[in-house]
Structures are given as structure tokens and as C-alpha cells.
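Quick one:
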Amino acid sequence: MNSRDYWERRAAQDMYDRMGTAEETAAEMNKAIQQTSAYLEKEVKAVMRGMQSFGISEAEAKKILNAAGDGTALQRLRKAAQQVSDPEKREALLNAINSAGAYRYRITRIEELNRDINRQCRELYKTENRHVTSALRNVAEDSYYHEIFSIQKGTGLGFSFSKFPRQDVDRILRANWSGGNYSQRIWKDVSGMTARLKNELLVSMLSGRSNEKTARIFQEQFGVNAYCARRLVRTESAYVANAAQKSAYSEAGIDRYRFVATLDSRTCECCAALDGKVFDLAKAKPGTNYPPMHPFCRSTTIADFGVEELKGLERRAKDKDGNTVKVPAGMSYEEWHRKFVGRVDKSAESGIMETRGTTIVNAESVVGKWQPRNQFSNNIDDIIDYQGFNGKPTIMYNQSEFEQAVERDHFLGERTFCADSEEDLQLYDKQLKAIDGEDYFYVNCGVGGAQYGQGMYCAADYTKGTITADKFEHEIQQYSYSDSHKFSKTNWLTLDPSAKVLEIPDGYDRQRCSDYVTRKYKEQYEKFRLSQDSVLKAHWEEYQSGMDEVRQLYSKWGDDAAWKKADKICEKLNQKFPDAHQLQNDINAAPNGRNAGILAAEMGYDAINASGHGTTNSYTVVLNRTKLIIFGGDKYEYRPKA
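Output:
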């Protein structure tokens, strides 16, 4: 083996490369931050121009606003005005707030601007989260394979190893290793900035500071956010890279590691003290004896193993004929990756493109268990993320192989979307296929629409090829060119055979489709609640038996005596079984106005199909992209069966 110094330098260089990737991601995030900042600064200047002064200092304004608590801008300003100690200032401020003049108009404009700040910052969160998620997944996979490569090259042994599963990558990304995962920390940073921006607007109103100064304060707040974003992506990249290295050590059967600090003038005392020390892998803990030790940490690790571990690797390096597989000292990482990881490129004759870490997610029902998380701006994105449905699809480039996949599966479908520029069209296509770091699966109907539940709409043929070409052509034209959208693209697709499709029977109109999904959801919710409580289950059975009689009596229209009797029975049942009565209320409230796509995803379905709709006789809404198979060739030639 080469010297320890060599491998320590190599490990440090690998970490340096990871941090370079992190800086590139931070730069992309900074562009989005600057765009949001510039837009809001312009709006702020328009609202604050010529602001009236009441002789209240900025410090005093902040103090009384903090005491005023939460509420709308108008509510907070009124509460704040009541706390102004100087009676003349208080009266002048209250008169301005309650007047119908320019000051009251500014308050209305600030309310609108507050809503705009909320919208802009939510979009900023989504953009930052998307960039970071894509970057961290790449860092995880790259770090894992680089570490396996380093161990193989260091030992000279091409031992067998498992590819890095997508679920392991996602497990690392979801880890709450320092009080929360990266997505929660991004939300905390952005939501904190949102609150500060809205507060500064009210401070400006109370103190009468200039529009230039208010805009400058906004710029400073966005500068803080940019710094936090850079710190987050660098620190999270360090965590993910080291966590992936740890997975590589486990895969290679190595149970010890050596801490490697980057020793220079910027090295902190804690990392310098750990440099060179060996620890058990089972006891590794970030922030204690495993990097990252702190924000912007540059430390890393190398494998530490002896004779026994080497013997184990030698046994795993045998080919089918019993010969030892060697890794030449001069082999580059790219050469090694092609040989041992074996990804297939787009031009491969097999027709299947590299799956880029695709792992099919088989979700289960989380009805009654899942609660929306506040770092998501809408519930569809939240449940898709929670279920792991936003992973990468399989893309096939050979038409005959794609058609075989169609035969194995439920249907053949087409997804058409349009755009007002070629660039936007390419972006939408990349988002659908999760290409080039674009990982936003537009299930919230950001592109196109889904009338039967939020999700990725497609016109589908469940006969797998007997629909005539003009039927598909009609659907394609519906979503193609328009006066405002000059560019369009059609993707042909199917689903993995394991996909669970919620079938809405033929004959249901759009509204009744939603009602059907809601009814199925209530059934699952009832089943879940009863499975948790045997006493409630017994009470529920008696309660429902009595309610059967109530429903029968209520069905007698115009019979007052029957209805009065039903009322009395219902009242007695509610008093006798309050837990069952509460469950009935909970079941009715459980869907909580949620869209059919959200409900289906909660129930663990991969797609919804509404039969009898459209010229192809089926509309399908895809929820789980990991079950999606897309034809990626230059042109799909639809060939209906005879």
C-alpha cells in the first residue's frame, strides 16, 4: 500500500473538490436570492417614498412593535401607537392610521407587499431546496464511489461491492444530524428572514425612515440569507460526503477510520486535536469525533484497516474462475467507474439509459399518520416528498423495449406541455425527467393541468395500443401551441408493473371523481383509527348498528314521527358512545379539504386513473415518479394495433 501521507492528501483533495461543488451550488442559490432581493427592493422604494415622520426613533419603533405582538400590519400599527408615551406623537400617529388618506393607503399597500414577501420567499425556499437537494444527492453518490475507488486502488484489489441505493442516499439527506435536516434549516432561514423583512416595513412606517434606507436594510437581510445559504450548503455537503464515506467503509467491511484535518492557519483547535486519531466506525458521531465538527468544516477521514480486513477484501476480489481482480495503480477514477460501477450511456444499444440512482419507491398508506410540515408551501409537494415519490424515473431510448414495458404494464400515455420559449420548454422536460440537476416534479400543476387531482396529467390508453392515432393526436393538440405558447413537446410514458393505480370507475364526472377518492380515503382513515383502539372498535360496531336504524328512519321523507324518533335515537347513541360519535366527526373532517391527488398519495397510490374521459377514454394522474417509465428517444412513432 502507499504511504498514509499520500492517502491523507488524497482524502483532503477529495473534500476540497466536494467543497468546490458546494460553492457552485451556493453561487446558483445566490442568483435566486439576488433576483428576489432586487424585485422586493424596487417594490419597497415605491411604497416608502416620501414617508411621513412622527418623531419616533427606529429603536423606539422596534420596541413598541415587539410589544404589539402578531397580527396584520394595521392591527400591529394600532397596538404600537397605543404604546407611544408622548401624547402628541400618539394622537398624530393614531389619526394617520385611522384616516382615509395617504397614510392609510400606504398601510394597505404594505399589507399587499407583505403578501408578496410571503410569496417571493416561499418561491425562494423552493428554489434553494431544489438546488441543495440535487447537489447533495450528487455529492453523496460521488463520495461513496470515490471512497470505494480509493480503497480498491490503495489495496490493489477489485473486490465486489454494492451500488449505492437511492434509499440510502435519501436516508442521509433526511438525517436530523444537528437538530434538523437541511430542508428544515433552509425553511428556518427563509421564514426568519420573511418575518424580519415584514417587521422592518412597519419600523419604517413608524419612524419615517427613507425609502433608500429601507431598501438598503432589505438588501442587508438578503445578504445575511445568502451567507446562511452558503454556510448551509457547504456544511451539509461536508456532512453528506462524510456520511457517504462511512457507508463505503461499512460496505468494504472496514470498522475503523482515521480523522484527517486540513492543517493550515485556518484549522480550528478541535479539528487539529483530532487529526490522526483512530476511532471505531460504530461510535462515529458528527460534531464529536466525526466530521463535520462545525460549520464550514473541511475535515475528512480515511479508512484504517489491518491484515484481517485485507484478507476479507482479497476473498471478495475473486472472479468466477477464482482469479484475483486487480485495480492497476495507474487506473483513473473515470476508467474505474466505467468498469466497476458500469453505468450505461444514452447511446447504448440496450436502449435503457443510466437510471442515475433510480430506486423504485413502494409506498404504504400513511392515512392518519402523516401531518403536513410547515417548510412546504403546499400539501401536494409535502406528501410527495414524504412518500419519496419525487425520485428519478427510468428513461428508455429504444422504442421496441419501451413498447415491451408498455405490454408489461398498465397503459400507454402521452404528456404534452407547452412554453413561450425554447429554454422554458427544455427546462420543463428536464424537470419531468430529473436531468441536469432539475429535480422539481411538477405535481402541483405548475405545467399543464390535472382536473382529477393534483399530479402529473397524461392522456392514457389502457388497451395498450388499440386506440387510433387521431385520438391521441386530439389530446396532444389540446395542450400544444397557443397564441402565447409557441413551443410544445410530447413525452410518451408508462408505469412500472408494480404501480398501484386508484381506479375511478367509468361514468364519474369531475366532481364525483373527487368524491370517490374522498370516500376511499375515509374508509382507510376509519380502518386505521379502529386498528389503534379495541375498545373504540367495539363501541363503533354498536354505534353503527344503531345508526343503521337512524338512517332508515331518516329515509322516510315527510314522516315527522319517524324523523323525531331518529333524532332521539341519535341523541342517545351520542351520549352512550361519545368516543364513537367523535370518531364519526373525525372521519368526516379527515380529508380536510385536501385535493384528490394528496389523498391518493397519502393512501399509498402511485397514480389515479379516471376511466371514460377524453378521446383516449382515460385520464391518468401520476404521483410517484419513481414508477414512471419515459421514452427518451428523439421521436416516438405511435403504432396502433390492428
